[in-house]
Amino acid sequence: MKTLDSIPTNKIKRASKLVSTGVKIGGNYLKYYGKKLVQGTEDKTQLNQDNAKDIYDGLKELKGSALKVAQMLSMEKNLLPQAYVEQFSLSQFSVPPLSGVLVRKAIKKYLGAPPEELFDHFTYHSENAASIGQVHRAEKNGKKLAVKIQYPGVANSISSDLALVKPIALRMFNLKGKDTEKYFKEVEHKLLEETDYLLELENSLRISKAAQNLPNLLFPNYYSDYTSSQILTMDWMEGVHLSEYVKRSKINQAERNRLGQTLWDFYMFQMHGLREVQADPHPGNFLVSNQGRLIAIDFGCIKKLPEDFYVPYFELSKKENIENPKQFHLLLTQLEILLETDSHEEKEFFTKLFQKMMRLFTQPFHSNTFDFSNTLFWEAITSLSREFADDNQLRKMNGNRGSKHFIYVNRTFFGLYHLLHDLKAKIDTEAYQKYI
Description:
Layout: H1 11-39, H2 45-62, H3 64-73, H4 82-89, H5 100-111, H6 115-118, E1 121-122, E2 128-129, E3 133-140, E4 143-150, H7 154-172, H8 181-194, H9 197-210, E5 217-218, E6 231-235, E7 240-241, H10 242-245, H11 253-274, E8 276-278, E9 286-288, E10 294-296, E11 302-304, H12 307-315, H13 319-322, H14 325-334, H15 344-361, E12 369-371, H16 375-389, H17 392-396, H18 406-423, E13 426-428
Helix pairs in contact: 1-2, 2-3, 2-4, 3-4, 7-8, 11-18
């Protein structure tokens, strides 16, 4: 794969790259309409493939928060055409890496010496390159290490990247009024946290220690002497990415269930035991060892759950509360889904909408076991997503509602559900309680 000797870091250069990508997309539409005129076909398969590739090609050179958006969208399998899911999934661990010159420069700058002086052996060829950083192999005193190096300029470009995305998001989600800023600030705050590798080191040590007794779960050791704000060093963990593992044809159901149970217990332990959670559950953040154990390798995005959000959020998942109009209304109000300024029509509309959503999405919590390969469950999710996307009345409503904490907590659950679905796992939904 071609390496990068530079990354656009200022606002003008990054905006210019997005504009050039937009020009390519315009050309794709011209080709589509020309073909439609000549052949009379409305098949958008090729259009989606061309647009997805051009968008991804533009974002992968920008890296940082621009590419992180693609990574997040790759998990939205029910909302995006398959071509986009396939292209954006590459952002999880397969993008053009930095050149050796930039890698050496970064290590010398942030660790005080070049890699050949710090380590007994260092491989300049990147093993994995994702949205915010790339990983290199190293050795020190007989230990195999993974050295994660952050791309230059990532932290400084987050605010300008979000400023470019903001007008599009406002239209897409029909956000109105001054209160919309809280959602963008939440995303900006989390993205900035992900660029602080000293904070990630702190998160990694704390959560791995707290969860060390969970069965079938492994964590790397971390090395503070070789870590800085933009370099993070940990054990090299042998295994395959979860996304590659699930593609194997010879995985028996017991293995799938065991890994699925480990994922579920780990996330429920974080949610209910720690009141904080690794809020980026995409397959690039997990490995499966040769012994079939789950390895958690990334704690850059941690979402804390404050009490005034945690309590009503999980109360809302209880079946008896969903079916109790008075209690359901109270919880929706506490979670800022129903607003004081809502008309009677708006309150009635959103109450019915969220009741429909919660009846479906909370099904795993309403029984002792749940089979995430259940096709009826996934067909219902896909159908509901399309129904909301095509709802003209919903488009007219102010989408600026719901606590800011929904963004990353909901993202966590949707990501977890997709991982369990990919594993086709059947899990015990209450097993985690014995570890809290």
